[in-house]
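# nightly structure sweep
# worker-07 picked up a monomer target from the shared queue
# config: single-sequence mode, recycle default, output format = structure tokens
# input follows
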Amino acid sequence: MAYEITLEDDSTTWVSPAPNTPLTEQVIEATSEVTTLDLNIYVDLFNTKRVWTIRWGYMDAAGYAALKGFYDRQFTALKFPEVTIPDMGVTSVVVRATLSEQNITDESGLVENVELVLRETIQSTDNYFVS
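# output follows
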């Protein structure tokens, strides 16, 4: 299955080249767990969020520049992008993006070992982030 990943913000929409596997989805939990004196556990379950880790072995310079643009606009526009991954049932989810360093392998600008991590969150106001 070739996963199609679409990133979108107020400036542009970008459809990724097919990523390498594994494409991982991790669930993170907001919980509070207490172990009682009789060794039972008491747990408050608050919420869950998802984190997607997407890897490409190689990406051309234009593709990496597009990803870097999404990363940079989080700080300049103070707005997170949205991700859509139809094969995983993900549609227009607001995410905080982090991007690996740029490892250029040849004179054409080919970048190797690109990793994009997208953490599900909410969109904040214009003057601060909530994550």
